[in-house]
Structure formats: C-alpha cells, structure tokens
Design goal:
Largest interface: A-B, 48 and 49 residues
Distance between the termini of chain A: 21 Å
Radius of gyration of chain B: 25 Å
Structural class of chain B: mainly alpha
Helix content of chain A: over 70%
Number of domains of chain B: 2
Largest sheet of chain B: 2 strands, antiparallel
Order of helices and strands of chain A: HHHHHHHH
Distance between the termini of chain B: 34 Å
Number of strands of chain B: 2
Strand content of chain A: under 5%
Strand order of the largest sheet of chain B: 1-2
Radius of gyration of chain A: 19 Å
Shape of chain B: flat
Oligomer: heterodimer
Number of strands of chain A: 0
Number of helices of chain A: 8
Number of domains of chain A: 1
Structural class of chain A: mainly alpha
Chain lengths: ~190, ~180
C-alpha cells in the first residue's frame, strides 16, 4: 500500500505537469505569437487550476514542484523553443503553490491565497524580465515615450497610472476566475466520487 | 565552455545592472567575443531581419529631438545600448538552444546520481506522447460539438474533461508502474 502511495507521489504530478506543459506549449506559444496582452497571467491562472486539482488528490509536500519540473520538460519542446520568461514563471508558480499549501495546509483559503499569489507574481515578473532582457535604462525610455504620447494627445503626464490600475485589475479578475474554476472543478470531482 | 558560460552570465548581469554606458557596452562586447569563439552560429539574428526592424526604428525615433529637429547623440547612445542588450539576450538564448540537449541533461543527472529527477524526465516524455494524442482527440470532438459562442461558453466543461482524462491516465500509470515494478525508490 505504501508503495502505491509512493508511485502516486510521482505519477500524479508528472501527468498534471505534462498536461499543464501541453497547454503552455499549444496555447502559451500561440498567445505569445499573437502578442496577446496578459498572456502570462492567463497561463498562470490555467496552471493554478491543475496545481489545485493535483494537490487535492496527492496532498504531500513536493508534488507541485515535481509538476512544475515536468511542465518545464514539456515546455522545452515548445514551438517557440526555449523561453526564459515562461520557464522561470512556471518554476516560481510551483514554489508559490508548494509554500502556500505547506504553510496553510490544503483548504479553500489556501487555494484562494495560492491562486492570487501565483497570478499576481506576473506583475513583478514583467518588470524583472524586462529589466533582464533590455537592461535597466529601458524604464527611462518607457517613461520618456509615455511623456511624448501624453504631450501629443494632451493627456496628463500621469495617465499611465490609470493604465497600470487597469492592468492590475485585470490580474485580479483572472485570479478570481481561476479560483472559482478550481473550486467548481473540485466540487464536480467530489460529487462524482 | 563551462567557464565561458559562467562568465557570459556574470557579464550579462553586469550589463543589466550597471547604469554606466561604457561599462555596459564593454560587458556586452565581451559577451559577443566569447560567443564568437565558442559557438559562432549563435550570433545569428533570431526571428529574422524583419523582427529587428521595428525595435531598431523605435529606438532611432526615440533618439530624435523634435524642436529643433535633430538627432540627440546622448539619447542615441543610451537607446542603442538597449537595442544591443536585446540582441545579446537573443544571442545567449541561441547559445543555450544550440548547446543544451536533452541527452546532456540526462548525462548530467546520471553523473550526479539524481535518480528521481531522471525518472521524472523519462516518465514525462513517455506521458507527453500519450497525452498529446488524447488532448488532440478531445479538442477535435469539442470543436465538433460546440460551434460559435458555445466554444467559449463551455470552456469550463472542456477543462473538466481534460482533468478527468488526466486522472484516468494517472491511475493507469500507477497500475502499470506497480505491476511492472518500474518505479525507482
């Protein structure tokens, strides 16, 4: 019996990690190609659903990390080749879920916290990856470009704060939807058993 | 190669963090030289020339002063650094793509006796093949039964079916691994 539990500890996270990786590979690459806004947050939201269902079935420390590793393995076969941003994002998401479920145990509150933390991770993630790819001075250029746009259209120079707020609100909505979908799927699976 | 890779990584971090233009340019040029001697084909323009036209024009336009209309050399130097940084980043990704192979990851795990990760790697690839076919079948029938707005409306059901299918595969895999004794403790 213990051996079956040990096999489940490896088999479940690998299968869910591969499922997540396939989604990253198909939809993630497609969203990347069409430059879809908030693609990172959307993919994290989707990954969160898989992570929550996985933890519901195998509630042992380490499963989310194994799933993120399996997802990265699949992501390496992605049409776009190796992409640093999503790979780091997947790894961070695994760590966030692992730490959240380790500290708060698996319950509806920890699912809520972990989903929100994971989706909002894409906010600092955007700034850090932009800094790595373009270097520190890119933010000065962005501010200068925004200033020029504001001058041209006669907007207030601080109009970007409104855009930033909309961006944050969109993350909030994605996190909320992910949480509700996870909750519903857990309910359906429970009723089925 | 291992020392060069480490040096490239450190130099790239320096070029990102340091605001001094001269230091940043020097670090980026050093990376270029190191890549040139290690893997010359990684210096290619990833995404083709057309991909690079837009960022190039964007940084040129941002270097212009409009009243009076002239090219600001200090802005140009700073903006070109960002463009150069982007190119070096793509070169580093090419370098990783060209030199990192799945077999080398496997060899690394074999050498350092990371058996669990090795097992996960092989198992992931096995499951990947199986799941790819299953998912394409599910998506085909989903598209067949859900036309128009229904394709978005029933997305939660699609997700549920995919998860249900994944769970079935999980139990099948547990059974196979147990019966055949393939699992490494």
């Amino acid at each position: 019996m213990k051996e079956i539990e040990n096999i489940k500890y490896i088999a479940f996270p690998v299968v869910f990690g591969v499922l997540w990786g396939l989604f990253e590979m198909i939809f993630g690459s497609y969203l990347h190609i069409v430059n879809f806004p908030l693609r990172g947050a959307l993919m994290i939201g989707l990954g969160s659903v898989f992570m929550v269902v996985l933890r519901n079935y195998v509630n042992r420390p380490g499963v989310n990390l194994i799933a993120s590793f399996a997802c990265i393995v699949v992501k390496l076969f992605s049409y776009g080749g190796f992409k640093l941003g999503p790979v780091v994002g997947i790894l961070i998401e695994g760590v966030i879920f692992e730490v959240s479920f380790f500290i708060l145990k698996f319950n509806i509150f920890s699912v809520f916290v972990a989903t929100f933390l994971a989706v909002f991770e894409s906010v600092p993630h955007f700034f850090i990856t932009t800094w790595i790819i373009y270097g520190g001075s890119i933010f000065e250029v962005y501010m200068r470009a925004l200033g020029n746009i504001a001058d041209f259209f006669g907007f207030s120079t601080r109009f970007y704060i409104k855009i930033f707020s909309i961006w944050i609100f969109a993350h909030f909505l994605i996190a909320l939807f992910s949480f509700l979908i996870s909750k519903n799927i857990l309910k359906w699976l429970k009723n089925e058993i | 190669m291992r020392f060069s890779a480490l040096l490239i990584f450190i130099l790239f971090l320096i070029s990102s963090a340091v605001s001094n233009v001269l230091v940043s340019y020097s670090a980026l040029f050093l990376i270029l030289i190191l890549v040139f001697f290690n893997s010359r084909k990684s210096l290619r323009l990833s995404g083709g020339v057309r991909f690079w036209i837009f960022p190039f024009l964007f940084f040129i336009l941002l270097s212009l002063d409009y009243s009076p209309f002239k090219l600001n050399s200090s802005k140009l130097l700073s903006n070109f650094r960002i463009f150069f940084h982007l190119y070096i980043f793509s070169v580093i990704l090419n370098l990783i793509n060209d030199n990192l192979k799945l077999s080398s990851i496997y060899e690394f795990m074999e050498r350092y006796k990371i058996n669990k990760l090795k097992f996960i790697l092989i198992f992931s690839l096995f499951v990947f093949k199986k799941m790819r076919n299953d998912i394409s079948d599910i998506l085909f029938f989903y598209r067949l039964n859900n036309r128009g707005i229904k394709i978005l409306k029933n997305l939660n059901m699609l997700l549920y079916v995919l998860i249900r299918n994944a769970l079935r595969i999980c139990y099948d895999m547990v059974e196979i691994l147990y019966i055949r004794g393939l699992y490494e403790k």
